[in-house]
Design the sequence.
């Protein structure tokens, strides 16, 4: 493995993160029908660490809580429980402006259309954080910084005068990356940054992100539902199911020797260009309703290995062979 | 085998009239689909995949218009039909499935009512007979306990179940062709496989042909028999899926295959095609891929290469013999 010999202090430490949403019917309906308030545990006790310069990916199906974790780590959403620390400082303090680390954490979103102000020229979009954080001494210096950023993401300095709608989806994502880089971040939270892009454009953006990581020593929290993109981008992977992490491992280990039954089935369900015409083994059933999660192991209704204990007792995440796994039967089925 | 194609598209040309002039959106698109065959259509957004599907279903509307070529279904020309006849073709001979199952379903009516209505429209069945047909269709698309689900509303179904219902609706008119535009894109991987298995099964059992439009090469590899690769409004390569994936003959297809990350490949960088596909207003003369092509020669920029006239695996590239395997 490529774990550094001298462990660097972790940049991000997430400990038992919880995020609950109130999804109750309106009060009036509740009074009329006697319906009870309902809480949805979008994230239910998630813990992980990210070392500087590395990429941790969160992978899982729609609704498993990836975006919620990402938004909490980026400080865009307050957790309902647990802690998140960046360089040892609680995110809540950073968001409140009690530490200079605010500019070090940036986020890139899936939708490069929605995340750029359509009425601003690209130059202003990228210059905005530079001005707000007073990272340049003069207007000329700001312009020079914008030009450098545009070149760094593969656009041209002349593009600063254009508006977002004049660019293709891939180019807009480059602009979003340039804006994120403008504040000289150390950590970039990337939520499905290429999911809305075509594969050929995706390759360009993923290559760009890796080049920038090398150049600026960036750390990524990378969110994706696409396992092959995750394999390409990450040093470590955490697999989520229904608000919880069910397995973590070094990337190569996860893909060569998955331990959790969900990870295994997810890998089998991936379409592969090597097997033209072979129908993947479809996973049985569907993702359960997070408002009313199954008892015991949340995966048991779809798990081919489920036993009585799985239906009753929730498995905790525990160390196994260099990674962690939350499954009662991980050793037996290995 | 000497079967006649169900669908035969020849030299299809679709144009858009805009205030900046006349734009050619599809140019010289030709292909056929056999009964029971799944033809995949891939390409990046803007390449013309959906427009081709729209032309087949007769839904091209101003400012777009079909400016040339022919579309035949079961031997009959359908690109120039008057609206009343077109309506008979649509749904009955050719049905569509779109990406988002929610837009295809009416949220305020039960699944049963929507099915019975569609069945009535296409087959004239009514009452108990239509109900029975609705149950049969739901069973065919793999909805467990179909009788009890007729009274359910769309929101009571999960995403995968909704897409099954949409497929059941598409089957109601017993169509010969289903145009499926990104039918699995909104679904989770674990559900995608279920829907693809269903489509393949329906083609095999009912002889329904499918035009499967997607940007996901993995879905094509798994589901389709043949694949057409589109670039800038043209088909640049067409052939059996295994051939196109493993032995591409067009440099664009080769670049596309190379840029897809694969588990276990663990490259430092993904091979990338630099630049971007031209917009319809900026398509260069000659080969539309020439500005990005690694093996371009001067003639490519002057004369537009046609799709090879013969063979089952054809490319539109004058240097296709030199495009190595991926
Ligand atoms: N503001 C909110 N109010 C109520 N429920 C929410 C809210 N945000 C998220 N949820 C719910 O929390 C759960 C986790 O959502 P989240 O967006 O984090 O999932 P995700 O893994 O990012 O999914 P996707 O792959 O679809 O983006 C889902 O059930 C979602 O419906
Ligand atoms: S704990 Fe039991 S049900 Fe859950 S994944 Fe493991 S074997 Fe399957
Ligand atoms: Mg998300």
Sequence:
């Amino acid at each position: 493995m490529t774990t550094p010999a001298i462990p660097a202090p972790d940049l991000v430490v997430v400990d038992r993160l919880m995020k609950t949403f109130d999804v109750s019917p309106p009060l009036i309906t509740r009074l009329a029908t006697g319906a009870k308030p309902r809480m949805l545990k979008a994230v239910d006790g998630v813990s992980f660490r990210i070392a500087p310069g590395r990429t941790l990916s969160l992978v899982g199906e729609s609704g498993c809580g990836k975006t919620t974790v990402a938004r909490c780590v980026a400080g865009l959403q307050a957790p309902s429980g647990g802690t998140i620390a960046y360089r040892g400082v609680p995110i809540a303090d950073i968001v409140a402006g009690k530490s200079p680390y605010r500019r070090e954490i940036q986020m890139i979103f899936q939708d490069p259309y929605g995340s750029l102000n359509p009425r601003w020229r690209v130059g202003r979009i990228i210059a905005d954080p530079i001005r707000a954080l007073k990272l340049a001494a003069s207007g000329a210096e700001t312009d020079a910084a914008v030009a450098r950023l545009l070149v760094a993401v593969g656009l041209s300095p002349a593009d600063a005068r254009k508006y977002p709608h004049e660019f293709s989806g891939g180019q807009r994502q480059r602009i979003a990356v340039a804006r994120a880089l403008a504040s000289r971040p150390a950590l970039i939270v990337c939520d499905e940054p290429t999911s809305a892009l075509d594969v050929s454009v995706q390759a360009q953006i993923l290559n760009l992100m890796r080049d920038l990581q090398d150049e600026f020593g960036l750390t990524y929290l990378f969110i994706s539902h696409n396992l092959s993109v995750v394999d390409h981008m990450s040093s470590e992977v955490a697999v989520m199911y229904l608000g919880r992490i069910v397995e973590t491992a070094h990337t190569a280990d996860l893909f060569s020797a998955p331990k959790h039954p969900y990870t295994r089935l997810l890998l089998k369900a991936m379409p592969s260009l090597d097997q033209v015409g072979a129908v993947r083994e479809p996973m049985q059933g569907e993702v359960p309703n997070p408002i009313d999660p199954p008892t015991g192991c949340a995966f048991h209704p779809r798990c081919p290995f489920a036993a009585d204990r799985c239906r009753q007792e929730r498995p905790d995440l525990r160390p196994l062979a260099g990674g962690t796994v939350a499954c009662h039967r991980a050793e037996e089925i290995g | 085998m000497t079967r006649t194609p169900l669908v035969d598209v020849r030299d299809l040309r679709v144009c858009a009239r805009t205030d900046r002039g006349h734009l050619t959106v599809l140019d010289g698109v030709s292909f056929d689909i056999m009964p029971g065959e799944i033809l995949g259509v891939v390409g990046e957004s803007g390449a013309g995949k959906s427009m081709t599907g729209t032309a087949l279903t007769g839904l091209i509307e101003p400012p777009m218009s079909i400016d040339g070529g022919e579309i035949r279904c079961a031997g009959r020309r359908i690109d120039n039909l008057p609206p009343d006849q077109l309506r008979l073709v649509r749904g009955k001979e050719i049905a569509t499935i779109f990406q988002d199952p929610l837009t295809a379903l009416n949220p305020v009516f039960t699944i049963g009512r929507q099915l019975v209505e569609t069945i009535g429209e296409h087959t004239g069945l009514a009452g108990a007979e239509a109900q029975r047909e609705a149950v049969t269709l739901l069973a065919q698309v793999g909805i467990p306990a179909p009788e009890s689900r007729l009274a359910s509303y769309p929101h009571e179904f999960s995403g995968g179940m909704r897409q099954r219902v949409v497929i059941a609706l598409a089957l109601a008119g017993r169509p010969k062709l289903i145009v499926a535009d990104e039918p699995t894109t909104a679904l989770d991987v674990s559900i995608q496989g279920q829907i693809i298995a269903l489509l393949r099964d329906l083609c095999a059992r009912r002889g329904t042909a499918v035009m499967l439009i997607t940007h996901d090469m993995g879905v094509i590899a798994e589901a389709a028999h043949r694949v057409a690769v589109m670039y800038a409004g043209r088909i640049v390569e067409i052939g059996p899926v295994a051939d196109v994936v493993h032995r591409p003959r067009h440099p664009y297809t080769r670049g596309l295959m190379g840029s897809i990350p694969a588990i276990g490949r663990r490259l430092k960088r993904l091979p990338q095609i630099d630049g971007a596909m031209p917009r319809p207003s900026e398509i260069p003369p000659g080969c539309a891929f020439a500005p990005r092509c690694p093996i371009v020669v001067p003639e490519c920029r002057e004369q537009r290469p046609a799709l090879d006239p013969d063979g089952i695996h054809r490319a539109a590239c004058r240097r296709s013999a030199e495009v190595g395997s991926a």
About this structure: Chain A touches chain B at residues 61-62, 168-171, 198-204, 206-207, 210, 225, 227-229, 231-232, 252, 255-256, 265-267, 269-283, 286-287 (CB under 8 Å). The radius of gyration of chain A is 21 Å. Chain A is about 30% helix and 20% strand. The CA atoms of residues 317 and 326 of chain A lie 4 Å apart.
